[in-house]
Amino acid sequence: MRLPALDDASLREPLRRALSARPSRKMPVGSTIAAAVLVPLFEKDGEAHLWLVRRPASMRSHGGQVAFPGGKSEAADDSLLVTALREAEEELGIDPARVDVLGVLDDYVTITGFTITPWVGWLAPDVDIRPNAGEVARVFPAPVRTFLGPPSGILPWRGWTVEGERVWGATAAIARSFASIVGNLGDDQ
Length: 189
Hints:
By secondary structure, the protein is of the alpha+beta class. The chain has a single domain, classed as Alpha-Beta Complex (Nucleoside Triphosphate Pyrophosphohydrolase), CATH 3.90.79.10. Helix content is 23%, strand content 29%. The strands form 2 sheets. Strands 1, 2, 3, 4, 5, 6, 7 and 8 form an 8-stranded mixed sheet that branches. A two-stranded antiparallel sheet has the order 9-10. The chain is globular, with a radius of gyration of 15 Å. The relative contact order is 0.23.
């Protein structure tokens, strides 16, 4: 496998095409809670990164865990895309108008009873990240290239260590799914 260049100019449009060409796996929500996250991409030092957050330990649900910005759907949300963009704005101050939505990944069902729909979006270069202290203890960039390599540790679901933070569970599964699509972009070049 030949890896594609991982910058905005080389990655954004091929990724958009790849996401639109594949059917995303949708899970029936039914007995789970509908949720959505944004996989927010941006370019830093000529390479694609994504923003991750660590939840405050005091949060009732998923406290202290590393995650993509997102949360459960609310009645006022017209779609799960709206949920993902609303949550990214609430948690990181990302204006939805400054997100170029590239597509959707497969739904992921968590052991805690959520069905998460992950949306991939490329942030405008001048987006200012402003974490909401009530929902975010820390925000940090993670190079996309990190998730193209093998997970650190013995068990794959244990994920990766990025910026001293452990990326595991649902977040690692979503990152792995995303990286699989990015990694396959090089096969077409």
